[in-house]
Amino acid sequence: MSTVSKDSEVQLDRETLAALYEETFRNLEEGTITEGRVVALTKDKVVVDIGYKSEGVILGDQFSAEELQNLKVGDRLQVYIEECEDSDGNLVLSKEKADKMKIWEELEKLYKDEKSIEGKIISRIKGGMMVDIGVKAFLPGSQIDLHPVRDLDGLVGKTFPLKIIKINHRRGNVVVSRRVLLEETRDKKRQTTLANLKEGQLIQGTVKNITDYGSFIDLGSIDGLLHITDMSWGRVGHPSELFTVGDKVEVTVLKYDRETGRISLGLKQKSADPWTNVAGKYPIGTRVRGRVVSLTDYGAFVELEPGVEGLVHVSEMSWTHEVRHPSRVVAVGDQVEAAVLNVDPASRKISLGMKQTAPNPWDMIESKYPIGTRIEGKVKSLTDFGAFIGLEEGIDGLIHISDMSWTKHIKHPSELFKKAQKVEAIVLRIDKEKERLSLGYKQLIRDPWEDAIPAQYHVGDSVAGKISKIADFGIFIELEGGVEGLIHISETGVEPQAKLEEKFKLQDGVTAKIIKVDREERKIALSLRDHQLDSDRKQVDEYHSSQGVPDQSFGRAAKQNRKRSQSDD
């Protein structure tokens, strides 16, 4: 009986063992991961027991050198079952595939839990970057940063926290984003900043962008505008004069609109307004020194103290020179002395004068050049209305065209003068307020119209001269002594429709009859027609005389001519 019992126990153990093997075989499926125990190690193989009827072999090239060196018999491993039995009946296992499957499981869990993972950028590819996160993942260019990145190659080799935004294990496709994490960080900072933001508080920021109208300041994932008018109590031509991108700056929160999210910032508000006491500090007439900070077409701005500038207009730069542009007198950075001419605190304006710091030469002009003084100077410029004569540095006098000749009709000063020519003149008038000095050229000689011309030229006389000018209304004749007479077109004997230029030429000699001498108007009127009538009458009279015929009048025209001559006398 004992023998039977013993055989029964052996049979039972075999059945139990077979059942256990059968249960194990049912749980082992190809394409799954299970845990095994290292039972043997060779140079290029690792033998693992997973509770199967035979051990599995894993090639050594699936382990790193360090892993092989540290691996011992009895260590437990996660392995991937490729085949339960190959063609030779062997169990085929893979550590490499088990590791990859484990990584994919972790990646899917991170994706599901919306957690981040460290990734190393390994190369640049079309549309973005290739990243190593345990498996190769794609980082699109639009997901690298909050702003476009110009130097993508410079990111290769760098490690960043990333977030999985798309995963497909079956296709082996993973897409990651760095931008999502940056946006989350930015939004958290923004909410923190906005929660603590109050009007009037001082806050640190970084200059993010510069425009013509101001600078945008990054206050911590939210931007505020520092307008150009709130940068300084003084004048600022452009924000770039004070800031560059990246500068750290402390500003005051002027206004925060929670509905629109707009934040207005101020820099000048950190200090007191220097214009508050400007009127008392710079009374009119005070002499001040300052630095030229900017130039415009109309003047120079001079900084008297930080935030306080005055304008020296071009008209207030020199007593004697006409300053066309301030750059001819001063340059940016120059230290200048000026006098306060006017102060307008409400408009934040101070008018300055540089010339007022030196004596006005026009205050001494009357004593230096009294009326009637004979002066000498050089012709500086010619205009249609006269010639400017330089007397000394910055003092010019004008010879008006009407004061150039007693006897000639001058159309342009160039008929008498040339630039740089030395001339003499007489001081006629001085206007100190308008800074004008009137000179006379013809006054150098006695006015011939007072006695010489009326004594020399009489109505009815015939005079000879040369044509000096031809106008639409008549021709000018230069007589002896430089006196000019005018033959009106009606006195030329030329038909009205004819042109004088076709009949007469400059410098042609002509003889005409004086029909009027006007001392007040300084004019001598001549007539070619009357001279011709007189000449014709004389010839007739001479003919009659030779024939013994008594003197007779020569027609109606001769009578009228004789009558007009008698009335003029």
Commentary on this structure:
Helices cover 21% and strands 37% of the residues. It is an alpha+beta fold and 569 residues long. The protein has a five-stranded mixed beta barrel with strand order 1-2-3-5-4. It has a five-stranded antiparallel sheet with strand order 8-7-6-9-10. The termini are far apart.
Descriptive keywords:
alpha+beta; five-stranded mixed beta barrel
Task: Sum this structure up briefly.
The chain is α+β, with helices and mostly antiparallel strands. It has helices spanning 2-27, 65-70, 95-113, 179-196, 278-281, 365-368, 452-456, 500-503, 528-546, 555-568; strands at residues 33-41, 45-49, 56-59, 76-83, 91-94, 116-125, 128-132, 136-140, 159-168, 173-177, 202-210, 214-218, 223-227, 248-257, 262-266, 287-296, 299-305, 308-313, 335-344, 349-353, 374-382, 386-392, 395-400, 422-431, 436-440, 462-470, 474-478, 484-488, 509-518, 523-527.
